[in-house]
Amino acid sequence: MGGWSPQARLAGCLDVNSEQHNERWSTSKDETLSWYLAGDATPKESSPFIGSSDAEKGQQYDGKNMALFEDEMDTSPMVSSLLSSLANYSNLPQGSKEHEEAENNEEQRKKPIKAPQMGTLMGVYLPCLQNIFGVILFLRMTWLVGIGGVLGVFTIVFMCCSTTMLTAISMSAIATNGVVPAGGSYYMISRSLGPEFGGAVGICFYLGTTFAGAMYILGCIEILLIYIVPQAAIFKLEGLEGPEAEAALLNNMRIYGTCVLTLMSIVVFVGVKYVNKLALVFLACVILSILAVYAGVIQTAIQPPDFPICILGNRTLVRKGFDVCAKTVEKENGTFTTKLWRIFCDSELLNATCDEYFMNNNVTEIQGIPGITSGILAENLFGNYMEKGMIIEKRGLPSVALQDDPFTNTNSYVLSDITTFFTLLVGIYFPSVTGIMAGSNRSGDLQDAQKSIPIGTILAITTTSLVYMSSVVLFGACIEGVVLRDKFGEAVNGNLVIGTLAWPSPWVIVIGSFFSTCGAGLQSLTGAPRLLQAISRDGIIPFLRVFGHGKANGEPTWALLLTACICEIGIIIASLDSVAPILSMFFLMCYMFVNLACAVQTLLRTPNWRPRFKFYHWALSFLGMSLCLSLMFICSWYYAIVAMGIAGCIYKYIEFCGAEKEWGDGIRGLSLSAARFALMRLEEGPPHIKNWRPQLFVLVSVDGEQNVEQPRLFSLTNQMKAGKGLTIVGTALEGTFLDNYDQAQRAEQSLRKLMETEKVKGFCKVVVSSNIRDATSHLIQATGLGGLRHNTVLVSWPPNWKQSENHQTWRNFIELVRETTTAHLALLVAKNISAYPSNGERFTEGHIDVWWIVHDGGMLMLLPFLLRQHKVTTPQHSVRSQVWRNIQMKKDLTTFLYHLRIDAAVEVVEMVSQESDISAYTYEKTLMMEQRSQILKQMHLTKTEREREVTSPVSPAGGAETPREKAHMTWTDKCDGVKDKPPGTITPGSIKDMFNMKPNQSNVRRMHTALKLNEVIVKKSKEAKLVLLNMPGPPRNRTGEENYMEFLEVLTEGLNRVLLVRGGGQEVITIYS
């Protein structure tokens, strides 16, 4: 049968003794995947592929039946040893002394490690409950319902709980796709999205956890100073109104918060193990408090608790300083005023002067907890948003207030302390659903993390979501609206509002919430430093490495100190309602990237993405990510921008300064997928002229030590590319690949190092072949991938090409010119490359001269524009385009450059004709009529004649060298190391050649053209910073190739920097937009 069989079997080999047999391991008879394992019955290695010494390696593989694979044993472990190491894997918390000793101490490595025994309930479910339930539920939930209404707050709760549920689904998929060591969410994100995202989000999660500690401490102080011992306040609130009272409260929070933070930090520093042991006690307080609330709800249906509130008109009064909710009381002796009367009047007498509103309105007493059967739910369905300083009013009660009546006795009314709106409520509430990653943070302590984390986390979120949603409805159905909007319970004798609903006593909630907030604060101060320590020890953020150190037992001392300092910032803010949105930002960003990581991994379908948790989908992850992003801007758009700015700065810092880490992250896979898609698109057709840019292939040579011989080529590349487009640097080595692999690696490292120094962004390639010519040809043909190929080759002029030992150099160069022409590639030849400017140099004045002789597709016009984009060549440079023998072209070229949007000064150069000069027309006709092979044969000198030239005496006749003499002396040199003779040197051989030369010979005419052009170019462009010149093509025949090199040498003689340009046969610049 063709195709893949649905039943797959994986076979491995295990060396066994002669008395033993191979075992077949199969999960069941119905399974389609069977494992055949064979190996040594007693594995000899203790560490098969990590940290093994040479002595160990010599004793690791002594099986008698695996001799066929003994050559691979040094690099590849046997299956038996691999499975043995994985079975003994231990996942201790990062930074612990025991973990370090287990890795480095041989004796402790051999000790059996106790397997973790925590299950789903104790390891995931209960820790998640403890971290999710918190201060917001006890201190702000009733106030949220009163301000936002049952429907509004239910929407907020549903939206936030849906976000955490979707995040938990994504997290479960990531957590079950392999082992998650210490670090929790940071580990998952960094290994899924890379060190840049991991470090940025890890720091955000650390800041969120730290500010959560500040929030819990502020909640603890609020419970202590307002509900337990209000007389302990240092700054007394009695007699203060408005801003003064608010400032006194915040100062109390700051002082006591700092003291509690210091105490908690000392506890964490001294004995963190006691914090972990008390975790169950704190959790019990939370659960008992919640059960007390539900019991109180049931109690209200039978017998509602007695918590009367006093209302003047429709204004809620602070229940302090009076006991009877009435203006007067009737007694046997008559009518007497009450304490309430004395608050609003200037005396106890009935004819006293009283507050106008007090006199015009009646006093009403209603029950603060009417009960679940009272029907109060209908009144609390919708929100009642308030401005700061507004009086909390009871709906439906009559009120008589004059418009001009001054607002007095503010201390007697229950006022709104902040301006409220929907988005504020979202930011305050969201911290109450965080803490869903407590289970993944404990993955090393779980017996089966891949089973416990999804089940425990999702069950915990389901439980807490049901509690929150039911609490919203029950609070709205049991508690009076004015009491719900009373944040600090001033209308109910200063009781905690949720405590008034609890059974059997409000003190159950007060004491339970106090201990739960203390425990949550300790947990935050315990977890945040360890998260920072995990980030520091990864080494991706250099300036944080100091926080990876700790005490002798591995406790993160420096990280704890930094955490306490950051936490103090939240304490200084002192307002629970202001701190909550800050940590909401950081947690939402963390959750957003968890969803993004799952979505990216799912869409990429990488082979390693095989989570055991199957109930996930990329659409759910994107929905969760969208919800997180939306909630960030709903909570506070400016906090969201600041949080993103912090994450962005950390991302760029890690990208530029962080340690290089390769974790097989999804971003790398995403980049590969995007690159593949882009390459496939590039294959659809050649690029349009408007999109054409030089995609450079820089061909360099290396010396015997594999160091680059032309480093300035990299500078020129950077100046032409400015970091844009494709750049490939290649070099060729002579020899065989097997013998020269190490040299090739060193050469590649040398190229990469120089590219990094010169800031050349691109790739490098080293090819080893039997000769340099073939290696260069292979580079030009095979470099690139698909549509991402080079279209321009940049090389340097071969130095010392006239020397006899370098005769192959110029032959390789000419072959390179021929190959680029055949491949329709543009060619750039940099002459005198050592004189080119480095990236650190600056040209503040001068010109770039372009000599445009033949049309090459516009390459000569495009290159100066690209060079002027770099800081080396300032934009003030002008480009003088000088044209050959056509005055009429000046106007046309000026118009052409104007349409090309290129600033240039056009100058027409006319060649001055003399009678003795050879005309261009004759040169062209002769070149077409005469066969090149016959001319070269006539001009060729034999070896005997060259030797006679060398031994001939030098004529004493001197004088200036004429162009004609220079032409003859140059092309007869033959590049065999014979130095050019001084002007006026006469030999019998040379006299014979001079008389035999005729003006119609091709080489003479070419040399004449080269001399005349050089004369004009030197005259016009002697002071130019760079000269760009059309490069003539090589001879079609192999005979006389050295003459071609001589022509180019004469053409560029006397010029400092010359860039010979040969187009690739296609237009590269256009006047159209």
From TrEMBL:
Membrane topology reported for the UniProt record: Multi-pass membrane protein
Region (Disordered): 36-62, 91-113, 942-969
Reactions it catalyzes: K(+)(in) + chloride(in) = K(+)(out) + chloride(out)
Principal subcellular localisation of the protein: membrane
Key words, A-Z: Cell membrane, Chloride, Glycoprotein, Ion transport, Membrane, Phosphoprotein, Potassium, Potassium transport, Symport, Transmembrane, Transmembrane helix, Transport
Glycoprotein as UniProt keyword: yes
Domain Amino acid permease/ SLC12A: start-end pairs: 124-298, 412-696
Domain SLC12A transporter C-terminal stretches: 711-829, 843-1073
Cellular compartments annotated: Cell membrane
Cellular component aspect of the GO annotation: plasma membrane; synapse
TM region(s), chain numbering: 118-139, 151-176, 197-229, 253-272, 279-298, 418-438, 458-484, 504-522, 558-576, 582-604, 616-640
Compositional bias (Basic and acidic residues): 96-110
UniProt GO BP: cell volume homeostasis; chemical synaptic transmission; chloride ion homeostasis; potassium ion homeostasis; potassium ion import across plasma membrane
GO MF entry, a single one: potassium:chloride symporter activity
Protein family (similarity comment): Belongs to the SLC12A transporter family. K/Cl co-transporter subfamily.
UniProt-recorded name of the protein: Solute carrier family 12 member 5b
Organism (species): Scleropages formosus (Asian bonytongue)
Source species taxonomy: Eukaryota, Metazoa, Chordata, Craniata, Vertebrata
Gene: LOC108930435
